[in-house]
Write a structure and sequence with these properties.
This protein is α+β, with helices and mostly antiparallel strands. Helix content is 25%, strand content 23%. Strands 1-2 form a two-stranded parallel ribbon. The chain is flat, with a radius of gyration of 14 Å.
């Protein structure tokens, strides 16, 4: 999302469900920091999900221009 002078990144990060909460938080911090290096004034919202979970989300419905499923 573009808010004029800043960006908002909101997404689901799928992680191994066997990771400890601490490990999952560490990975999420790494991803957030990489985004903030490029977009320092961005707001980053990361939802942590166990790998393979199927929810009713837009990214599970996305298709490429040819109509092929890309989720």
């Amino acid at each position: 999302r573009d808010l004029g002078n800043s960006y908002i990144f909101e997404f689901h990060l799928e992680l191994d469900g066997n990771l400890s909460l601490y490990q999952a938080h560490q990975y999420t911090d790494e991803v957030e920091n990489l985004i903030l290096k490029t977009y320092p004034s961005a707001q980053v919202i990361i939802h942590q999900d166990p790998l393979g979970i199927k929810e009713k989300r837009l990214d599970h419905k996305l298709k490429n221009p040819k109509g092929e499923d890309i989720s």
